Amino acid sequence: MTTSDDELQQLLLTLSTQFRERLEKELPELHTLAQQLLTSNDSAVQQLILRDIREQLHKLAGAAGTFGYAELGIQARALELSSVALLNASTVAQLQAHAQALQLFSQQDCVAQISDSSEPSTAPYLNSSDSKVNRRIYILEPDQQLGESLQSTLQNFGYATEHVRTSVALRAAVNRQLPDVLIIDSHLDEENPDGLAFAHELAAQLPLPLPLLVISQQHDFDTRLRAVRVGVAGFFTKPLNFSALESRLDSIFVQQRGKPYRVLIIDDDLELSKRYRLVLDNAGMQVETLSQPQNIDEVMHRFNPEVVLLDVHMPLCSGPELAQIIRFNDAWLRVPIIYLSAETDISNQIKALLKAGDDFISKPISDHALVASILARAQRARLLSNALSRDSLTGLLKHADIKEQVAVEVERSARNGGSACVVMLDLDNFKQVNDRYGHAIGDNVIRALSNLLRQRLRRIDSIGRYGGEEFTVVLPDCNLEQAKNILDEIRQRFAELPFMAHDSSFHVTFSAGIAQGNSQSNANQLIELADQAMYAAKAAGRNQVLCSTSAC
Question: Is residue 140 a contact partner of residue 183, using CB atoms and an 8 Å limit?
């Protein structure tokens, strides 16, 4: 859940205050260590002191710039590198000079240091987008019949749509409430005959950029090039392919429907981890932090992160070592590991990446850059995961994955004493569609049904393409009566959808069977019962939903 701007600023201020309190404690500790280094004559003791100094300086170098102490962070990094060099070889004079430099460094006034510095290296990342998914669509289409047909079709998919015929009416609608998507015909009314020019003008006047889809009678290169330059997200020619247009809308809204990206932060610097977590949380991500590397297996299994943000230097084990432990598990090979450290030596960064890792970010990093880096990696990770586990035509779970999801939900409902329903669904007379209109049109029908299921079902429901034109749906916390009502509504809406082929339209229906699990059920039994109910629905005349018991 995102916080308001004022709340975020207050939380960031609290973390900054905590960091300043930490500086007021750690700088005197560094001064004491420097004094010990000056007075010790035992080389072994000196090495231990240097390691403690280096560890503290490393944390300061990474965190100081993030909290606004840019100059202090630069000084800490320089002294850290000197400490590393002295650990390898040092003379008495070098140790004394280093200790004296540390003493000067530790005597800085924290308050003056931040107030004298230039702007802090970070600016809070404020996520201003509303978490609610409204999916409001305005359609500007002079052709009354086409506009009403498109409006009706999109309403069946669950969108809130409004059809207008003139540019003046669209301006009025936009002024009244901003939509999520605009659909505009490239040829409008006499006042604005050029729809693309009007779309460009309107977009320049909007407070936020909106996805724009264009319907056109023309399909020549110049028209499509103009559409690209206007910033069109989808271009469709007449006669309009309704299912193709809805598929594009579905891809536009997929980010809004998707679950938050899961990010695991592993860093022994607790204040810095809290700040990163706050920033990423506010950007809409789900974040967990880990300061004890030995708990990595439990957290990875439970949280299943899509990105791991990992510090390089930690006391129990190094970041590259922990990354290699993560990579031992084949299930986590797809998870990107991003090193986040004050380490600026390129050779050391390369060594870390060669052992196990995908990217390296140097501290300090601004909040905007942090969010952008994590978001880019998380998006690619999810796309890869979906490509491997989801059907390429529909974007739904594949056969093996939906069966696994059935097993998961059945086991969960048995443990919690709840109910879960499994649905098997099959398109009616689908072979005739392929034979009469071709497999490309048949694919459009399959995509339309998959999109409709995604639109009308809940986020917690799982949908899979069981094979061919057969689908499987898992409905957690749902009884037979509820499941039948939901599937009947989807069945009716799907039967109303028009599909275009050879300048004519046709309709398709489906039959479905439902089975409800209990404490003794297993996944295979439920799938078989739902399958039997589905075939009973087909035998009873198709285009209906039946349950596996007489209770429905």
Answer: yes
